[in-house]
């Protein structure tokens, strides 16, 4: 199993930016697709963005498209989420997730397909 740890959350004003990181450790990191999800109070966890092992394929939820950018550095076994033009409705706990054994260009959007999850990092956007 891969251990995932998020960092970079915090409090920011609307219109501001944050960059989240997700550091992976543990078993081999190869062919490991990753993604970001978020859960706001009293709401279900939802997909935010995903990236394939080779970084060639990315997907975004419509509500973050054009504002968020997902990336990864396999040499550092770390994934990132650059969040710009933040809105109060982006307030949530952000979780990173991963799943191994997939073709290099495959990204995963479905929550149920992920095997590994981090503990989450809080992002709060004030108006």
Shape: globular
Average of pLDDT:
95
Tell me the series of helices and strands, N- to C-terminal: EEEEEEEEEEE
Q: Beta-strand level of the residues, as a percent range? A: over 45%
What is Rg? 14 Å
Largest sheet: 7 strands, mixed
Explain how this protein is built.
The protein has 127 residues and is an all-beta fold. The protein is 0% helix and 50% strand. The protein contains no helices and eleven strands. It has strands at residues 2-7, 10-13, 18-26, 33-39, 46-51, 58-60, 68-73, 78-83, 92-99, 116-117, 121-126. Strands 2, 4, 5, 6, 9, 10 and 11 form a seven-stranded mixed beta sheet that branches. Strands 1-3-8-7 form a four-stranded antiparallel beta sheet, with no helix packed on it. Strand 4 and strand 5 form a beta hairpin. The radius of gyration is 14 Å and the shape is globular.
Short descriptors:
127 residues, mainly beta, four-stranded antiparallel β-sheet
